[in-house]
Specification:
The structure holds two protein chains of two kinds. By secondary structure, chain A is an all-alpha fold. Chain A has one domain. Chain A is about 70% helix and about 0% strand. In chain A, helix 2 packs parallel to helix 4, helix 3 crosses helix 4 and helix 4 packs antiparallel against helix 5. Chain B starts with 16 loop residues before the first helix and ends in a 16-residue tail after the last strand. By secondary structure, chain B is α+β, with helices and mostly antiparallel strands. Classes of the chains: A mainly alpha, B alpha+beta.
Chain lengths: ~160, ~290
């Protein structure tokens, strides 16, 4: 990985954390998109050989702090999410936009379900919403992916 | 679209089951420890420093919005607001004078009773910077943290009554669980006659429910519920809610009592963190303070 790639990745993650912290209008606060999850999806789909499950540990811990969640919660959900993305990558690269979007939405559902299952197993009194992140993912994924494509092609990230 | 890099080398693309299993075991262990012990609280606190730049940047749009809102007010509006504040200040000063006399009288009475409780609470003003997006929890993020002396378990008030307690502390921000959260309960008593109960959060910002109130209990709509200080988490005597309805269902042992929180849970921007010295001292086993 070149210095440019490392700094771009750090910038990308930094932007993800800023967006995660960005307050939404009160009426829309339930539909805060899972920015970091979507950013990681873009990175894993673009460079699956670089962004493996190791990403889950540092980013997951920081997301736990950001969302005041039990430490380890996002490490678990991201590990399973990235592992699934990597396992499906060969098929996904042949999918068209619509199919890929549907798979990403399904994976977000799986991510939320895994999180709920883990919380139920460990603390039994917590719950994370399932459908709100799915709705926001469905709304922004296609635009985010298009923007990412423009950036990667314009700056020739490889 | 190029978002999927079709040229990515596939020979290195291997899902490593041992690595995944190790991370899953590690994360579940971390979650279990964090859920049952406060061992990881200091790790969380230190990681909070890493989040500081993104949190600061994330707050900028909100700050700009508030600044625009404030600076957009016309001179006429400001003058009206100023007059209202002057009038309100006079009323509050009058009340404070009466309160000071009552406080002195209370202290004398306590001295006579050899009671050790202190009535003066040190407070710190803070403001709400974000709401928890989770629709199933009623929590807010405030702009004071461990660096300001905030600790887990600390009571939080607004101008009208008890708002909640601190449940997570980072260096420069803290998470407050409001009394309306479905996981929250607070011991209360009726101000009129001292009948004790426990006010449970319902998940709705406008409603609390009293637990296990006997059908014969002397509680009527309009009664003010204040914190009883039992449980040693909240200070005693702060307004919590006003009873809105008492329903007695034939055949049921307990009445269904609903109350409206005194604090403006969905509107308050400025809050008070209470560093109470006496009544309502938080049990030390429930407190976590960052090490200085």
């Amino acid at each position: 990985m070149t210095l440019r790639a490392v700094s771009s990745t750090l910038l990308f993650f930094g932007l993800g954390f800023v967006l995660e912290h960005l307050p939404m209008p009160e009426m829309l606060s339930w539909f805060q998109p899972p920015w970091m999850l979507l950013f990681i999806t873009l990175l894993v789909l673009h460079s699956p050989h670089w962004f493996g499950v190791w990403v889950a540990l540092p980013i997951g811990l920081l997301l736990d702090v950001e969302h005041h969640q039990l430490l380890g919660y996002h490490v678990l959900t991201l590990t399973i999410y990235i592992a699934l993305l990597q396992a499906l990558w060969r098929k996904l690269k042949r999918f068209n936009d619509l199919l890929l979007s549907l798979v990403v939405i399904a994976l977000v559902v799986v991510n939320q379900l895994v999180g709920n299952l883990a919380l139920w197993a460990v603390s039994s009194d917590s719950f994370v919403p399932i459908w709100q992140p799915v709705v926001s993912t469905a709304l922004i994924w296609i635009w985010l992916r298009a923007l990412f494509s423009i950036i990667t092609s314009k700056f020739s990230f490889k | 679209m190029l978002a999927i890099n079709v040229n990515a080398p596939t020979h290195t693309l291997i899902v490593h089951p041992p690595r995944i299993i190790a991370l899953v075991v590690l994360s579940l262990s971390l979650m279990w420890v964090d859920a049952h012990y406060s061992l990881l609280q200091s790790v969380r606190y230190q990681l909070g420093y890493l989040m500081l730049p993104s949190q600061t940047l994330g707050q900028i749009p909100g700050s700009i919005g508030r600044w625009l809102e404030d600076s957009g007010a016309s001179k006429q509006q400001l003058q009206t607001q100023n007059q209202q504040l002057i009038a309100r200040n006079l009323v509050l000063e009058l009340k404070t004078q009466r309160l000071a006399a009552l406080e002195a009288e209370n202290a004398n009475l306590r001295e006579l009773l050899s009671a050790s409780e202190q009535v003066d609470d040190r407070v710190l003003v803070t403001s709400v910077i974000a709401l928890d997006p989770d629709p199933f929890s009623q929590q807010v993020l405030i702009n004071k943290g461990g660096e300001d002396g905030v600790f887990i378990g600390q009571p939080v008030l607004d101008a009208h009554g008890l708002l909640g307690q601190v449940v997570d502390v980072l260096p420069h921000s803290s998470l407050v669980m409001m009394i309306a959260d479905a996981n929250h309960a607070i011991p209360v008593q009726v101000n009129r006659n001292g009948v004790r109960s426990i006010a449970l959060g319902t998940g709705s910002l406008s409603e609390l429910e009293l637990a296990h109130v006997a059908t014969t209990a002397d509680i009527v709509p309009g009664d003010l519920l204040v914190s009883s200080g039992l449980g040693e988490r909240y200070p005693k005597g702060y307004p919590v809610a006003t009873v809105t309805s008492v329903e007695i269902i034939p055949g049921q042992s307990f009445a269904v009592v609903k109350a409206k929180p005194s604090a403006s849970l969905d509107r308050s921007r400025y809050l008070l963190l209470v560093f109470n010295q006496g009544a309502g001292r938080v049990p030390s086993k429930d407190i976590w303070r960052p090490e200085k």
